[in-house]
Design brief:
- By secondary structure, this protein is of the alpha/beta class.
- It has one domain.
- It is built from 8 helices and 7 strands, in the order ααββαβαβαβαββαα.
- A 7-stranded mixed sheet has the order 1-7-6-2-5-3-4, sandwiched between helices.
- Helix 4 links the parallel strand 3 and strand 4.
- It is globular, with a radius of gyration of 18 Å.
- The relative contact order is 0.15.
Length: about 250
């Protein structure tokens, strides 16, 4: 009973804070960016807008649920490569998109249709240039993604398409890997563990836990240019699967 009450209190406080933070934070961040946009180029304005979204995401995932939820990001890529990257991530929870704010890059996420239907947040995502792979013909999707990479904007993709119901790693779709092969940008695998119940699929109930995000060594175009999209997606999937096993302590580096 005591643990149940603690869980209820945690969720009540989190969602009250989330509502207040959104009501206050989104207009404030938007106003600051809008004011700066008067004096800078459209490109720099978009960069600041995406960074503001990242700051909002960091607040939601790292500040509001603390100390019940702790988030740790580790960069295991020791090279000097600055990107932009094509980030390929496993998908465990609805909190995954917020976790991408931990990556210190200007980002655009590849999403399904449902995030665009969220009040306010969906509008912000579209305004920031987020792309729905299901709403665009592949040729248009590939062009928009490649144009963003050419501008120096990294891309985040969750190639499982939907979050796992049991924590297992699902099969990958090929679209983002076809883009990688045609554009030649480095692929950076991202492993996420610990947020399977933050929240669990089919519920908004958050449970306490520790979330870990590991940025693995990237694959240069020379590393994968001779692979087919099918072989490339399975190769990256295997890298992520092994990375997750290491994070869980079931496999050594």
């Amino acid at each position: 009973m005591k643990e149940t009450l603690k869980l209820i209190c945690f969720n009540f406080i989190f969602y009250i804070l989330f509502l207040l933070f959104s009501i206050i934070g989104i207009p404030v961040f938007s106003a600051i960016v809008a004011f700066q946009a008067i004096f800078i180029s459209h490109r720099n304005g978009m960069k600041k807008f995406r960074r503001a979204i990242a700051w909002y995401g960091l607040g939601v995932i790292k500040v509001l649920p603390f100390p019940f939820v702790r988030v740790f990001y580790k960069n295991l890529d020791t090279t000097a490569e600055k990107g932009p990257f094509i980030f390929v991530c496993n998908h465990r929870s609805a909190s995954d998109p917020f976790l991408m704010a931990c990556l210190p890059y200007e980002l655009v996420q590849i999403v399904n249709i449902w995030p665009f239907k969220l009040p306010v947040l969906g509008f912000m995502a579209r305004a920031a240039g987020y792309l729905s792979v299901r709403e665009l013909p592949f040729e248009e999707f590939s062009k928009k993604t490649t144009d963003l990479l050419h501008e120096g904007v990294s891309i985040v993709a969750f190639p499982e398409g939907t979050r796992s119901a049991d924590g297992s790693l699902g099969q990958f779709h090929s679209s983002i890997f076809r883009v990688a092969l045609s554009s030649g940008y480095p692929i950076s695998p991202i492993c996420i563990t610990g947020n399977e119940n933050i929240p669990a699929r089919g519920t908004l109930l958050l449970k306490p836990g520790t979330i870990k995000i590991h940025k693995l060594p990237h694959l240069k175009f020379e590393d994968y240019k001779n692979l087919t999209p099918f072989k490339l997606k399975n190769s990256v999937r295997q890298i992520i699967a092994e990375g997750i096993e290491v994070m869980k302590g079931k496999k050594s580096l």
